[in-house]
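User: quick one, fold this
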Amino acid sequence: MTAYPAWTPAARPGIVPLHPYGFGTILGRSFTALRHNPKVLLGFALVVQAVASVVVTAAISAVGIASFARLDTVTTGSDDYDTIMAGSIALTAVTALVLGALTGVLTVIVQGVVVAEVAHAVVAEKPSLRAVWGRVRPVVWRLIGYGALTLAAVSLVLGILAGIVVLLVIAATWVGAVVGVLAFLALIPVFLWLSTKLFLVPSVIILERSPVFAAIARSWRLTRGRFWPTLGVIVIISLGFSVVAQIISIPFSLISSVVTGILAPTGASDPGTIAVIVAVQVAAQAGVLLIQCIALVVQSTSAVLVYVDARMRVEALDHDLQTYVEARDAGATDLADPYLVGVGRVAARPTALAPGGYAPPTGYVPYGAPVAYGQAAGVAAPPPPPSAPPASETSAQPAPTEQPAPAEPSAAPAAPEAARADAAPAASPDATRWAAPGSNGGA
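Assistant:
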């Protein structure tokens, strides 16, 4: 029998290492996470976004055609014509606004599904869509509420600014134009700042099951000290996918113009030409939709990774995740959710981290550095003896004054010869001391 525990395999690696990581890891793994579970990440997002896009386009087109078709029944330029035109524009705009809001709700749900799946991928789990939805479903109304709150706040601010600019334009055109341009430029840094501070709200709602306002406050705290890396992730991903979407849409627009010029050079269009133009536009929209879905997944994935990294640095979430992974791989069941174990905990971290994310122990001597005799490289140096004061204290203390040496005691009186003869040689303190022959000590 042996006292050593049974051998267990190494823990399965997730999509990120279980220790604090940097900006490059967050940005790179946000893209590579698509390969971990593409059926849930990309497939679900693509299906939902495609269905929503088709439904919204069809509904707005139907409302627009039905409302504007009434203009054919009245005389152009009459009062009825102007009234029908204004009503048709308003009805189409309201329809687009309502359906756009519903599309935003679906986008929030897709983001929640991505957050839940990536949280499993961090601990090397590949759940099904049903399991992921089981984690999102209890808090889905909080996600929708947060999306509605964001939309209402943005609409309110833009509505107030638009009203002010319109009033100024009516009073003085150039003043309104200047104020409008300055307000637009001022909104850009405000938007970036709020987007960064609220970037982690969906992750907090899903993984910590927090209410909306508590999640907003929690995201505000977790991004403290991590503002610029988080802003960099948002800007790089948004700009990158915007450029890719333009690269895809511009060639299709050129193809549509060339096809129109070839098939209808005089401007007259037949059903075949219209069908070709529609097919080209549909292909362009399909490519843009695919890019938008990938951008949504990648940005949602980066939000989870920023959240996990922030909690690793502040709350030592990496230890909870590592404990969970080791216990799960060892066969344990009914484990607690690792994302709920240390919520709000403050853990001390070393001030300087090594490139791998961990600091060496105190007193560590790197290989090749000069070490004391008998001390191996890579081993902590032994502590100094307690009696030896530090060098700084020794240099600060005044030098002690030299004391005179004590006088040697006077020689003992000579013993009688008989006593010296009877004394044993081993009893003499000088019995083991060597002396030259003929000297007093060698007698």
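User: anything notable?
Assistant: The radius of gyration is 40 Å.
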